[in-house]
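ESCALATION

Customer reports they have been waiting on this structure for their group meeting. Please prioritize. Original submission:
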Amino acid sequence: MKFSPSLEQYRIVSGPQASGSYADYGAFELPGPCGQTLFVIASSGNDASGVDWEHVSVSLKNRCPNWTEMCHVKNLFWDAEETVIQFHPPQSQWINIHSYVLHLWRPKKQEIPLPPRIAV
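Update from on-call: job pushed to the front of the queue and completed.
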């Protein structure tokens, strides 16, 4: 995961989502490419199986982020040639804390297989 120092100006530093100035992680309110503020949380850590993940959640107050907004955030937190994914897990595993949030994921130590290029 890359982290541009220019993101520091958008870091949330007070309130329940406050994050200190450290590494690539924390909560941010960013101007979006479509004119709306994006609320972003960047994190990293191991899951129960030991896979080390990079994770960014993106939300807006009144709707889900669109493709342009998700691409914008992807490019802020990862290099252009890195693959990240959005999961659609089994419905029995859904956890919905916020109706207008989408997530980007990337395993740190594994390559993500891609479908045939013509299909993407």
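Sent to customer with the following note: The chain has a mean pLDDT of 87.
Escalation resolved.
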